[in-house]
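Protein folding task:
====================
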Amino acid sequence: MPRLLPPMNAIRAFEAAGRLGSFKSAAGELGVTQGAISQQIRLLENWLRAPLFERQNRRVVLTPAGHAYLHEVGEALARIASATVKYGEIDATILRVNAPATFSLRWLVPKIADFQTQHPQIRVRIETSNIPIDALAERADVVIRGGPDAFHDYWVRPFLSETRLPVCSPELLNRLPLGHTVDLRRHTLLHTLSLPRLWHDWLSEAGTPDLEATADLVLDHFYLTLQAALDGVGVAMGPTALVAEDLAAGRLVTPFSGPALRAREYCTYVPKTLQTDTRTLAFCSWLEQRGNMKGSI
């Protein structure tokens, strides 16, 4: 005989709302809207043909049946989580993070010691990749990519915004001053193979779409392009979030105050099966604290 099982999304919504005593708090933990929590719980109540919560003005209270069901459901989910760790090739202390190489090198790795200090029980394993999320072969607990984009099996939270401006070393600027955009004709423009239109878009915004530089140097990774700028090879289109420390330390300068090209936000993508995982929630919250955005759905 097939097992009589309720919808699992409804179970997760009910367990979180019952444990936290709030639909709003459950929505925050699971990364969905409060309306979605209410809808899932109504679905479960209709499925069970029994009320699980009493709606009292702005608060909800578990019914006696809800209390009993929460106890059983909570224990069942805990057993599933324990069995997953026990019989799967999963170390519950390891958090697998997949992020682009340049972002990892210039933003994440320099800050990761702060997360480890706050959460010494979580061991972070960083893997670098630019592969689209739906093409990843290896499992990851948190994927960092641009966005926000919608994926059916993931919830998304933006945590860092940025713009792009020309950057160069102060030594280069001393040799070849940049008072106006047209002065770029005397410089080498640094390009990244995966972002071929950055300079074209910026020059168009600056009103000089047909400007031709002395030379163009194309590199296959963004971090190489930024390193070339640090070494005084030429002028790069710098993502402000990833060169902020270099600008603060004076290793790079921005010769022009604008225009600033708007870039996609950095977002965390977490599999919906890990919506209540304390490691992923801690890491995503930490990213939002260190970034310049509050997470949103």
Summary: The first helix runs from residue 8 to 20. The CA atoms of residues 146 and 266 lie 5 Å apart. The chain has three domains: 8-87, 94-157+264-290, 163-262. The longest strand covers residues 154-160.
